[in-house]
Amino acid sequence: MIILTTSTASQTLSVIPRQYNDSQFTMDIRDDSTNVNVLYHINTAVTSGNYLTFGNVFNPILVENHFYDLYLYIDYNYWNTNNSFWNLYDVLWQVDSDYKEDIFRDRIFCTDQDIDQLNDNDHYDMNKGKFTSYNGYNNDYIVI
């Protein structure tokens, strides 16, 4: 699971894709709560080691405490993203293609909390800032 924030600045994603052959692809993000899809065309991805790294500014911004489905794919219907449009696709090239080549699928959770489970043992707290407990009573003895 990828954890992102509600920031309006560019956020960097590093994924291990199914294939490394192209730095241009389409990113589809679907909000699980509202079922709204937003498409982004990524053309600045860089392969570093085993990771495909790219940055993106999310517009509209991601909503706090929402889950999203992330889907990266090469869209053969999007012109100039691949060289295999007309010579490898066996349907008339003037007809829109419905073929998509999967690169990566994952889930995104959006939160502004600092989460560092490896070093600081900071876990996600669902009630952070919303619930406070009161312990002002004297519970030293039981009255019968």
Largest sheet: 5 strands, mixed
Supply the CATH class. Answer: Mainly Beta
- Total DSSP helices: 0
Range of strand content: 25-35%
Described by the principal axes of the CA atoms, the overall outline is elongated
* Major β-sheet strand ordering: 1-8-7-3-4
Tally of strands: 8
Order of SSEs: EEEEEEEE
> Taking Cα atoms only, what radius of gyration do you get, to the nearest Å?
22 Å
Distance between the termini: 52 Å
Q: Averaged pLDDT, please?
A: 79
Q: What structural class is derived from the secondary structure elements? A: mainly beta
| CATH topology tier name | Immunoglobulin-like
Number of domains: 1
Q: What is the annotated CATH architecture?
A: Sandwich
Classify the helix fraction into a percent range: under 10%
Low-confidence region ranges:
80-85
Structure characterization notes:
Mean pLDDT is about 80; it is low at about 80-85. The chain has about 140 residues and is mostly beta strands. It has a 5-stranded mixed β-sheet with strand order 1-8-7-3-4, with no helix packed on it. Strands 2-6-5 form a 3-stranded antiparallel β-sheet, with no helix packed on it. The chain is about 0% helix and about 35% strand. The chain has a single domain (about 1-110), classed as Sandwich (Immunoglobulin-like), CATH 2.60.40.
